[in-house]
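Input record (one chain):
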Amino acid sequence: MASYAYRAIAANGRASTGEVEASDRHEAILHIRRLGSLPIEITEVATTSDVVRAKQHFGGKARSAVTKTIAEISVLLDAGLPLDRAVALTIENIEHAPTRAEFVRLLKEIKSGQPLSRAMSASPELFPAMAQAMAEAGEANGALGTALARLARAMKQADDLRALVATAMIYPVILVVIAVAVILMMLLFVVPQFDALFSGAGEKLPYESRMVLAASHGLRAYGWYLLGALVGVVMLTRLWFRQPQVQAWRDAVILRIPQFGTLVQYIETARFSRTLGALIDGGVTLPAALAVAQRTIVNSVMAKAVGGVAVGVKEGSGLTAPLAATGVFPKLALGFLRTGEEISQLGMMLERLSDVLDADVKVRLQRIIGLLTPLMTIVLGATVAAIIAAIMSAILGFNDVAVS
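The corresponding structure, as predicted from the sequence alone:
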């Protein structure tokens, strides 16, 4: 027996959470339904070995391999091959060993009579809730190949956006590392060369020179202690930010930062709209699609807003007006959603919205990096120049004293 944590919608429309004991995921779903609730999310309570396994398998290579394999399976299904044969053929093309092992397990469960969506649920680290929901919708309407094609396209777009953000941050990170390394080299190796010259000078040295020498002495004497303290502060800060109230405050502040807040807002909205559009086009009902798409939003403020909208949608309200009332989604997105509802093409408009937002994110990233790069270069140059100026000021001061 295993423990399964779940989120469900009760008969009165209220969301509920809990935990049940069952031999497998399917039995847990049946048990929740017998309680009179509709499960929208169910996950096995992870043991320590499960967590280690998830960390070992999950990563960029695994995501890329899964996306590629799902796309190949969809092509083979549309060509008329049965599911087990399509999966067996694609396994031979998987180069990433952990991902190949997961698809081998997937094939065994399919051959034993399990549907694809249920087999996927055993590996949520590789097959997220969106994949499971779309596979289940494709199985229900008899268009599994089409559903998997949509899923692969959505996963590819999400991977491209993630890669775009990561690539854009490479140069600023390298610049920061170089800046810190240069400053440390100046304080640890260059400034100490003048210790003998300035020893005993005391108050005769200019104030800025004394500050640079004190920083150099302190770094050499207490550098390891400072590093340990810095690591401790970082770890404590991470633990502090994991508290729900602190996380909500942090995410709210992020959304209010000029330029950067808008960028985060667009990235989250693009990911949300892409997932929601793919699920709706795949035949998933809007309330269930909202519940799944909400889990793709990292910012807790935006995720909470979508959660409140999802409850209203279950009670029969629309989508655009409640989202607009939250005030955390861009006006561009609301315009696309309103048009989609008016023409009854919400899925199509959501996919187009994600494409537009992706293009806008790329432009905004380039703009922010274009501003950060010269700013960081100026700060680096000014810091090094200030250290050199402090040393030269002390040397010139000694020359003045000697002449006089």
